Amino acid sequence: MIKLFLIVNLLIMTTFTHAVEKKKLRWGADIESGAPYSYKSPENPDKVVGFEAEIVDLLAKELGMEVEFVQNSWDGLIEGLIRGDYDIVVNGVEITADRAQVVHFSQPYYYTAEALAVKKSNTDISSLHDLKGKRVGTLDASLAQKILNQQPFSITTIGYDEEVLCYGDLVLGRVDAVLLDEPIALYYAKPNADLKLVGGPIGYMEYGIVSRFGNPEFDSRISNALDKLIRDGSIQKVLERWNLWNTTTAKVWGQSPVSLTRPVAYEKYLETAWGKRTLAEKLKNYLTFLPLLAKGAVMTLELSIISMLLAMFLGMAAALSRLYGPRPLRWLSLSYVEVFRGTPLLIQLYLIFYGLPHVGISFDPFVAAVLGLGLNYGACEAENYRAGILSVPKSQMDASQALGMNWFQSLRHIILPQAIRVVIPPVTNDFIALLKDSSLVSVISMVELTTIYGQLASTYFDYLGLGILTALVYFLIGLPFVRLSRYFETQLTTSRPPPLS
Amino acid sequence: MIVKIDNVKKSFHNRLVLDGMSLDVAEGDLIALIGPSGCGKSTFLRCINGLETIDSGKAQIFDTILSSPSEIGLKEFQRRSLAIRQKVGMVFQSFNLFPHLTILENIIKAPMVVSNIDKRESEIRAKELLAKVGLADKAYHYPDQLSGGQQQRAAIARALAMSPRVLLYDEPTSSLDPALVNEVLLVMKDLDQEGMTQIVVTHEMRFARDVADKIVFIEHGSIVEMGPPDQIFGNPQDDRTKSFLRHFL
Question: What is the pLDDT of residues A338-374, one digit of tens each?
């Protein structure tokens, strides 16, 4: 007995001291089409690799902390940081005066510029000036976009959220040129046989580590650690391995621009992402993705079921209030339905996750996603249920009340069982729609099926095959519910003996 | 007197439907309410068990007195209506059976839900009632598998399952094929012989004449004339009664 007590004690002690020793360094980034910054490792899709992933690892080691990666969409990275979902953002965020108003930047860990890419066959574009009157693709809210908009002549700028898609459209001729950060151009345009980089570096930018205001002690620890890693050459080594060591950075740090290390990481990337694969290799690859897609599918399913349960509860409450409640409740129900049905789900998700924290209400991503989906679909369910209840003739209520049932008993035993039969098909329809709409929650840092598709597809440049695979997974996880509803429907309508006569 | 209606008035959207109706019913009576369509006889019937609220006047059923909700409050009106419905059953023109339940389930639902009688006991009683209305073999059928006359007999069995002391009928045979009317009227006649108090809104003049203890002729929301069948049919006093009955003779 005493022995057991000691063992338990020891276990508690060790976990406790372990927890104290290794504090978590929570790092936020968007790993969808994230090479070379941070992206899913092609060999091991559970792992995040990239030059920034390596820099964060080095930092954490220096600080005696343990890295915890948090995925969020690029648009929401700064908001998520301010919410406190993670402590730092390291994701090619350039230091700008605007951003420095809302968050803290460390000293730069990399200096770079923009690079212009065109189709290999193109001969009339070789500099910024040649872009007059052309369609130019770039990432939204980037320095490149700013540069394009500041030119004295008119350029049609097309903003994307994924670099892969910029270059993809360039190949297809949907845009005439693409202006993006050099590291991106090096990884996505240069290896592409249909594209070429033209002109020299355009503009100048610095990537910094982003943190929330209000932790000067933490900021200076980061800054000191980064300073040490720059001075002892660790960061230079990382950059060289990724073929990113450039003249600008070398000049600022007073080093030679010549790389001393072979760009092994870059070569490996080229081989896995750009190397030609046979169909058999591709299929084998898909098999290795299955566990990851399954993980996404489980999250999607879990999220959809819980959201649907919430939606059904809210919908029933709203429908009953609207039909039988006193005037204020009817009015409340009507407003709820109109507001949530009449505004986009995406806006609702943004408001709940990023908006409410500004008035002191903060939810974790899963809760926010369930709330967003549940509230939105609850409004649709309310109308379904209301229609279902109204489809039951009023005389049924008369009959049950005349038998001495009170209002609630009549509703529970007579009205609702009949309404449910009418409502099963539209509710099933809504559940399938919700299952698919749940992909929207990737904008509030939830990693579900579509997020994983985006990450894998952008790492392997395989939007077609993986797209079909992911669509198939959605279809398959929805299927049992369709069957289940059909089963209930037949149970409720045809469980009767044939007429005798 | 087990039912005492005193000067009940009721309007729908400013249209006066019941213009001060009074009626006393003794235990075991069969009262036939007759009159042209839209005269207010169905509304009057629905006021007796509180399916319609009343605007003024009183309806006393056994010990429970219903008066207008503005006088006693809607909550209290509903509470009293519920108390009345424990003793007063109702049969509707369109039967209003529950289409999602078998005939047997239709009958045992209220005893189980309202009176907490267990399923087995409810079923035994339900089968007795089905036998009584001649539907012993239809227990496991659904309402839409029965003819109109069978459905209405099932509806009567359903009402009887709550052991009411008064039954209200709202034109019980009006939506039936003429050939099926009699089977329903026979059940009502049987119940009359057993001493059940019944208040029937009907257009079946022959039935009213043969079976009713009292005929009540209603027009424009008020009682024009009432009395035993011999008097109303044989020697009506009021011209309006005469004119109405002329259509049927």
Answer: 999 999 999 999 999 888 988 888 888 899 999 999 9
The residue with tokens 């992402």 is: A273
**Beta-carbon separation of A404 and B86 below 8 A:** yes
Sketch out chain A's domains with CATH numbers.
24-110+207-276 (3.40.190.10), 111-205 (3.40.190.10), 280-494 (1.10.3720.10)
| Residues written for chain A | 501
Cα atoms found within 13 Å of the Cα of residue B2, Cβ hemisphere only: 17
ipTM above 0.90, yes or no: yes
Q: Burial level of A182, CB count in 10 A (0-12/13-18/19+)?
A: buried
* Number of other CB atoms surrounding residue A272 within 10 Å: 16
> Taking Cα atoms as reference points, which of A203, A204, A202, A187 lies closest to residue A249?
A204
Other CB atoms within a 10 A radius of the CB of residue A498 amount to 6
Range of the domain at B108: 99-163
Does the predicted TM-score (pTM) go above 0.90?
no
Per-residue tokens: A156: 């049609």
pLDDT band at A186 (very low <50, low <70, confident <90, very high): very high
Distances B136 to A257, B52, B130, B154 between C-alpha atoms, Å? 100, 34, 5, 10
Domain count, chain B: 1
At A494, the pLDDT band (50, 70, 90 cuts) reads: low
Q: What percent of chain A has pLDDT over 70?
A: 94
Q: Is B89 within 8 Å of A418 when comparing Cβ atoms?
A: no
Can you name the residues that pair with A111 across neighbouring β-strands?
A206
As a dihedral over the C-alpha atoms of residue A390, residue A391, residue A396, residue A401, rounded to 10 degrees, the angle is: -20
B9 located within any domain: no
Residues linked to residue A27 through DSSP beta bridges, in sequence order: A69, A88
Q: Residue A20: what pLDDT?
A: 47
**What would the pLDDT profile of A143-164 be if each residue is shown by its tens digit?**
888 899 889 999 999 988 778 8
pLDDT band at A15 (very low <50, low <70, confident <90, very high): very low
Residue A1 binned pLDDT confidence (cut-offs 50, 70, 90): very low
Give the span between the Cα atoms of A268 and A457, in whole angstroms: 18
Nearest residue of chain B to residue A422 (CA atoms):
B100
Residue B132 lies in a domain: yes
Task: For residue B100, give the nearest of A417, A499, A500 by CB distance.
Answer: A417
State the Cα–Cα distance between residues A29 and A23, nearest whole angstrom.
19
Residue B90 three-state SS: strand
**In-domain check, residue B40:** no
- Among B92, B141, B162, the residue with its CB nearest the CB of A404 is B162
- Distance, in Å, from the CA atom of A473 to the CA atom of A293, rounded to the nearest integer, reads 8
CB contact under 8 A, B51 and A497: no
